[in-house]
Amino acid sequence: ARGGVVGPLKEVRAAFGPDGAPLRIPVELEEHRFLTARPVELLTDVLADEAARAPAFGLDNALRLPFRVAAKTGTSRAHVDNWAAGFTRERTVAVWVGNFDGTPMRGVSGITGAGPVFARVMSLAMRGVRAAPLVDRSHFESAAICALSGERAGPNCPGLLKEVYLPGTAPRHDCTMHRSDGALDVGPAYLAWAQAEGLASASVSAEGRPGSRAGFILPADGDEFLVEPQLPEGAQAVPVRVMAPPGAKMLELRTDDGRRIELPPPFVTRLPAVAGVRRLELWAPGGAEPLAVTRYRVR
């Protein structure tokens, strides 16, 4: 709402000692910029996009007001509480909904709990105020993209979306997922997702295209994972997704505790989240050295 600039916090307006003399109130934060202006403007445009909210909330939702508002809702684990926060150029509103004793609510989310309160407060705060434009869209460049791949829409894409980008950051390549023969090829990186979604992909396995190198998609080298102490250990795991070399029918994972795990197509699995810095190797059966190595940390 401040365009990427953090301002000093003023939680106390004035304070006095026992003798009535004013006390000095320390400034908690010096004013400084934490994000440059253009990315903040793009983020604001994203948060004000009513079409982007529609798939999750429907077109008629608590954040749809007579003026553009950049807003975000959030729901905590187990519906303990929820938030709705947003802004216009003139007003900023944040709403928390929950029970003070931490008792979970019954299926109340940010859009159904804090959202209606946010809408009511923001509407009252903007009464009699003419809303200024949230962003200057002339600062962006637009492109027609494929909604599935995120690449520029090609001649074989069944549909397209108009999207805006910071200058120089729009996709430069045409979509490679929709082929001229009508087949869908999501590629090796998204094959497991496509299978889980019931999408038939022209990729028959998670093989890299000719010239590509075998390696770890997940976990990437340097990734960090946080174990939630409130959740059962068995419910928490490290996802593994591998880019296989062309022609591979079986691969092997080797962990730093000596285990060897067979990895068939689509070369996806999950490993226990064991605290510490972990090393994971990818091997071809009978190989003399690992195809790839990744290191990750579990906290």
TrEMBL record:
Lineage top rank: taxon: Bacteria
Gene3D superfamilies per UniProt: DD-peptidase/beta-lactamase superfamily
Alphabetic keyword roster: Glycosyltransferase, Transferase
InterPro entries on file: Beta-lactam/transpept-like (IPR012338), Glycosyltr_51/Transpeptidase (IPR050396)
SUPFAM superfamilies listed in its UniProt record: beta-lactamase/transpeptidase-like
UniProt name for this protein: Penicillin-binding protein 1C
